[in-house]
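Input.
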Amino acid sequence: MKVFQQESLPAGLENVVHGGMLPDVQASFRIFAAHLRKVNAQWSFPEHQHPMFELNLVVDGSQRMRVGDKHFVQKQGDLVWILPNEVHASLGAVDGNMMEYVCVHVEVTDPWFRQQLSQIGQIVHPSGSKMESLLRPILMDLAQIARENTSSGLSLKLQTMHASFRIFTALSEVLLDEAVVSNQQTGDSGLAAQLAAFIEHQASATMKGQEPFRITLIAKQLGYSPTHCNRVFHKAYGVSPRHYLSTIKLRQAKLLLMDPTHSIEHIAEQLGYKDLSQFSKQFKRWTNLSPTAYRHLSW
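Output.
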């Protein structure tokens, strides 16, 4: 999901009696590999990890789960919340019975929102708990859509998109209701936030033709080693500083490509690439599409 605010708006302030400004928001939110599965007693899923948050709800039966070093039984109606890069595995259904579950992976690129979600450390949210109550209706709707699977491709995509907005809203409500959100940054989380701010500034500087990104320079300014900065940033946001910079540049490239008044050559120059060929190759690595093909899809 993207909420994009125009950079310059008419002033019209001469007759304002009272008012207030809200923060600008520009965040990417992606639902990935959402699926419903009914499995037999022999089924299991091996140990794995990924850079996304995961929501897993048991619809029928119970399953044995391992997340990190914690083993537990996920009962019918229990919601499991798995943080990015957390090693986890399903060890199969309990007592040799059938089991059905719905699983959704959530990718969040905004570093602040990603960090706030990472503060939800509880793994199992039992049936009836606040988080389970907010998310269960959405996940059950997704399960029903997957179970019926009679919609056209366009309708199916719209229904899934609608569910993704509801998940985004529900997770925001969880953060607000549970008072998880904090503006206080201390220790490693504070350093990670500083690094994110430096990287965002560096992305803007690169687009203006200044020095390219180097974690060594940022680490030196903050008084830490590059290795420590990379480790702290990856722990907080689930991606490396360089990957985060690529995310910013990709987001900006997509926004610029959706504006037909900008030539692709100009966009490449704006983003700090030495020529169109270099930009085109990088954009295709990111999206598997050329800038021209993405622009045609956007019109």
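The longest strand covers residues 29-39.
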